[in-house]
């Protein structure tokens, strides 16, 4: 089924929060582990949209199954956050489609690079980032978890077309 990507709406809040929770539970992340947090969800408009970023949701048959945010962290760099695909909808290319859409939006907004993080136990996310040209910047231990920080330099659309 085809994934339709659109901008977040306030009415999506409960759905994306539930999606976030089920996705993190799937990989063993839980409140109190040092990396799990969800306090930004009620403030999507403020944290992502109002400050020059983006928050996208992906729908299949009008059901939200994927999401991802783009949060400015400098004049030329944005952070990709909250990249999630419902466990029942994984392995269909939806995560790659969301990441591509967020990176394209970052270019449109004038960012030159994107950064993000994930944990070592999120193998599918690590593989996706690697396939899409991200490079590892560093690793750190947070409790029992290893957090991996990565970055990707973005090329303007014209430069990508010439490759």
Describe it.
By secondary structure, this protein is α+β, with helices and mostly antiparallel strands. The chain starts with a strand and ends with a helix. Helix content is 31%, strand content 33%. It is globular. It is built from five helices and seven strands, in the order E-H-H-E-E-E-H-E-H-E-E-H. The longest helix has 15 residues, at 94-108. Strands 1-2-3-4-5-7-6 form a seven-stranded mixed β-sheet, sandwiched between helices.
Describe the structure using short key phrases.
single chain; 163 residues; alpha+beta; seven-stranded mixed sheet; 33% strand; globular
Draw up the topology in text:
Blueprint: E1 4-7, H1 13-26, H2 44-49, E2 54-60, E3 63-72, E4 77-85, H3 94-108, E5 113-119, H4 123-131, E6 135-142, E7 145-153, H5 157-162
Parallel strand pairs: 4-5
Antiparallel strand pairs: 1-2, 2-3, 3-4, 5-7, 6-7
**What is the helix tally?**
5
Whole-angstrom Rg: 15 Å
| Average of per-residue pLDDT values | 92
Shape from CA axes? globular
Number of strands: 7
Q: What fraction of the residues are assigned to beta strands by DSSP?
A: 25-35%
**Fraction of residues in H or I helices:** 25-40%
The rounded distance between the terminal residues' Cα atoms is: 30 Å
Sheet with the most strands?
7 strands, mixed
- Listing every helix as H and every strand as E from the N terminus to the C terminus, the arrangement reads EHHEEEHEHEEH
Which class of secondary structure composition applies to the elements? alpha+beta
Weakly predicted, low-confidence segments: 158-163
For the largest sheet, list the strands in their spatial order: 1-2-3-4-5-7-6
